[in-house]
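To: structure desk
From: M.T.
Subject: fold request, one chain
Message: Could you run this one when you get a chance? Sequence is below, nothing fancy, just the single chain.
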Amino acid sequence: MKRQLLGLRYEAFKSLATLAQSNHVIVRGLEAFLDLMREERDAERVQWAQSALVTERARVAVAAHFLHEICSAFQEQRYEVAVIKSLDHWPDLGSDLHVYTNADPADVINLMRRQFGARIARRSWGERLTHQWNFQIPGLPESVAVHIGRWGQTGEQLTFASSLIARSSHALRGGYRYRVPSASDRITISALQWMRRHFHFHLCDVVDTAMLADADVIDYGDLLAAAQAAGIWEGVATYLAIISDYLASFRGAGFEIPSFVAASAQFGGGDILFGNGFLRVPIVPQSARLYQSQLASALEQVEFDNGVRLGLLPCLATAAMLGQKLTASGKPVW
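Reply: Done. Structure tokens follow.
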């Protein structure tokens, strides 16, 4: 790998940076690349990395400022709000900004329009089900996704969502103070995102979860309780097993997983494939089994509304694939 990086041409470097950007690891990747090139005294490639880092850090600084202003505006109106997903990758930042709130949708829309001149973007079927509103703000290239009162593949996670802010804590990022989910909830959100509709991992999912595990900040007992309440424990356990196995294939060792987590995992990293720039999990049979498990859990807990919402998932997925073929759009339909 080192030899390949040392012989990298500029076009290949740009392609590698684009791949790192789509996987939300560009700052961390460029910093590692820059250290290597400085060690090798490769002035040309040092310049490539420095230039790309300046550009990306400027983007992150602008987005972080807007994110702080948005959270402050919510708090001034006494609306509870937490940043989800976006700050998990720090010093990297995702391609969109995500916050969660329990505020009334009409109040959120009014605030975003009044304070920031925001425009509501078109909502997909899934975004309507999950109570997600996307806003475009003048001066901010990134979209702001506001998740209101629900979470999950089809908005079925009411209990989990309702406790998200109460279980959160404050974190300092880029000189700003934000409320962010607990380590357990960060992992649950990532697992739900994978199970929800994407069926793939970003590299940042691997890196971010590994950092939590290596720092020994994951309370597995708390994670078990939260994931069981959400009806997705097997999915969360599988998510952790996949990431640990994938890490082991590259650094020689994964992170230590308690036996009760390993016993609940339905499969591991051996089922992971790489395609179109992401790490992918086959939908059939692996992901389908986890969906069936979650649906059965919702019905067993007599959560009929949640069960009905989850029951829509196969139909929506089929319609989404058909819609993308007909429109050739890269944006998810649901």
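Reply (cont.): Residues 306-334 have pLDDT under 50 and may be disordered. Let me know if you need anything else for the meeting.
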